[in-house]
Amino acid sequence: MKRIFAGLLSAALCIGLAPRAGAVEVVSTIRVGLHYGSGALGEAVVENVDGAGFSVGTYNGRSFSATATTASTKLRVTASGESVTVTDANTGAAVYTGGGNVALSPNGVQFSLKSANYCGDAVFSASGSQLTAMNYVSLEDYVKGVLPYEMTPSWHSEALKAQAVCARSYALGSINKHQSRYGFDVCDGTDCQVYQGTGRATSNSNSAVDATRGEYLTHKGELATGFFFSSDGGATEDAVNVWGNEVGYLKGVPDPYEDLDNATNGRWTKTLTGTEIANKLRAAGYSIGTVSNVAITKRTPMDNVNEVTVTDTAGKKVTIRRQACRTVFSVNSIRYSINGQSGGSGASSGTSSGTSQTQQPAQPQTDVYITGNSALGPMPRFQVGAMAAVGEALQTILGASCVAATPSFTFAGTGWGHNVGMSQYGAKGMAEQGFDYRSILNYYFTDIQITK
Ligand SMILES: [Zn+2]
Known about the structure:
Blueprint: E1 8-10, E2 25-27, E3 29-35, E4 43-48, E5 54-60, E6 63-70, E7 74-80, E8 83-88, E9 94-98, E10 101-106, E11 110-113, E12 116-119, E13 121-127, E14 130-138, H1 139-150, H2 157-172, H3 179-182, E15 186-187, H4 203-211, E16 216-219, E17 222-223, E18 228-229, E19 267-273, H5 274-283, E20 291-299, E21 305-312, E22 317-321, H6 324-327, E23 336-338, E24 368-370, E25 382-384, H7 390-398, E26 408-414, E27 422-423, H8 424-432, H9 437-444, E28 449-451
Helix pairs in contact: 1-2, 1-4, 2-4, 2-8, 2-9
């Protein structure tokens, strides 16, 4: 079957109305970067997987014009200046030389490039002696090449369908994303969505794409990007509380559907010393001295962490907000406690335990009371004049069992990812409980339509 690229196709969202500003532009062909930048190729060998020849020509935008045909099943591509040269890989016979985006369109379904098989066309542009290798592929075949890399293809079909709609929406929201730098829409890595052609697709994953053919998410007539993540650990979160911008369809919801005991990183702990935390803060651009305390100082209405305050021995406080509460500490989610303290408004606080120090008083540099761990029995109570002296002085007086010289902080949490949009493990749980993909998408996204 020869694939046909129809070029740009605009879809009006209002039934019976002409396209309007803000309407979603649905492309039939997406341009995926495979080898580019530092990974650009010195030469490429493209083989027709179906044992047939190629049409060779150029793309103008998303429209292909064939100017040569060859029965050769294996072509070699090289770059010189701005020109791409295509030869028969077996005989060396010239097939085509030209500039721009040069396409090798297999007379069949798939081609191979560097051990991976792809639908659509192999497209190359030249810069000096280097080739940028791209795959121009139909949106549906692209989603088939993404789905099994973003969700386990043996999962319930309704979860796979929900993921397929998310992947298609994400792709439509990424058209021209890498245009200015590299000349294509999306890359094939986690920066966009992982895409490796047809290698991992199964009948299960392909069926989920076919069953949702052309469907994507909209919110008030605009494209809604299908953000997703592995698991939320109990509740998703408003985009504004994670990324800082208000998005109407990305609102937190409680999540009773995840099986956290069987989810990858569904439950986790991570212990960092004060020194490690200070280093992580400095690496993220914050200025902090010797860390004496780390505390959650604000949670969201969904009970996710919204603010963590780190205090140093000089009383200086650094407050980290939103997604930085996950990324700065390199922990798995924004849903955790620190040394057993959930912190934030309404949460219990004030009891020191284990290796953590007491809560920092409201005014830095004032007197600080250190109390012992009640598990060790009654401990004396000391008043200390300067935070800088706390660690050493109290270790000497109380012994290491009461106050560690280097405090450590254990983050114990649930969930893996940014918590905005659809939980994949939640989708799995909902599907197994009988919800269909439309119900799943409508649960995790607020006020959306599934548009075709
Ligand atoms: Zn990318």
